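Aim 2 progress update. The chain analyzed this quarter is reproduced below.
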Amino acid sequence: MALSGVEIFKLLPKTNCKKCGFPTCLAFAMKLAQRQTTLDKCPDVSEEAKKILGEASAPPVRPITFGTGDKAVKMGEETVLFRHEKKFVNPNAFVLEIKDTEDDATVDAKINDVLTSEINRVGQLLRVDGICITNDSGDAGKFGALAEKVASKAPDVGVVVNTESPEGAEAALKHFSGKGAVLYGVTAENAEKMVEIAKNNKVAVGIKADGLEAAAELTEKVKSLGVEDIVIDSGARKASEILEHNTLIRRAAIKKNFKPLGYPIINFVQRDDAMYEALVAGLGVCKYSSIVVMSSAEKWKNLALFTLRQNIYTDPQVPMQVEQKIYKIGEPTPDSPLLITTNFSLTYFIVSGEIENSKVPAWLAVMDCEGLSVLTAWAAGKFTGAKIANFIKESGIEKEIKHRELIIPGYVAILSGAIEEKLEGWKVTVGPREANGLPAFLRSRAA
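Predicted structure tokens:
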């Protein structure tokens, strides 16, 4: 049972030393009770208090790391049901299934689909995060051979080892020992053998249950056998079941602090129809799945799902934004044009992309407007003539360029006079209203 803020306060040093970053121990206790901070922020808490408070302050959904190195994916650690309460913390992993009954050409193509899936969208690198190898043949030798191929061709990619056979698990996991893999296929019948194999190879366990009650019982059994890194499959396959089961699992963990269901969720959404699969995968993204296993990874599907995931796991109260500074697009010279825009990520990447398309090197002044787009920032009084003038003066760009001309977005042409009043000796030119007009605009000036 979770402790209240007052109960937590009684176990703290009560020195109000502020080392935790909060003004008083009571304030820290209240935040700890709301799971908005962690106990390790208090350097003076006693060992006895750590034992009592450790579980109370732990996130209701256990954090687990899938994969290793730069491509590792952290899952779980969520504390809310809805993203307007507090942003969702750790985005789900997309995983592509490869069966050991598929021919070499198909296996190679799927591995390549994963390795070449990475795209850059508004400054974030998005990709298919892992591979699920499935022991479809039931043959441990074939399964081990597939595991060896995946391990050699995609060594940095997280892997789900999908088998209910202890022999198959042994044959495959030796290639992923200590690499953040997940051994999926642990049932009530094979739990003892499979958990022992997972422990020997230092991997997480994926339980395969038939319903929520069975899932809760199985996680408790696995935990009692010595493994705490667990992912849950309740057996849901239909879209309606995924919606129902995932919601009930998350609600039980968050609202009831029900530890047997306080683990990341794995959903298998494979469908013959790629569009149908994409829709069910999207449901998993929106409704609490931590691993979404798919049968294919077409580029169009990836783009749609990456975009959905990126939006779901973005803080709705904090717009995505880039750093305020003068950016070089291409190799600009002192004679190159100077343009200005706001620091909303999508605005920056669209504008910079269109400047690159023009093949005209340029300076792009990106002004901090709290992540708002051009028109929104202008309407909010954050993109004004005075503020733009101050930014240009303080940016140091006058030392980099010979001319004194600033190109502003066409939608805020009304600001040209105000900017010229504040920027003595400067000329303000009104650019296109839409970013896609920049290539023709810049090329015509350079001609």
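The radius of gyration is 27 Å. The chain has a mean pLDDT of 93. These observations will guide the mutagenesis experiments scheduled for the next reporting period.
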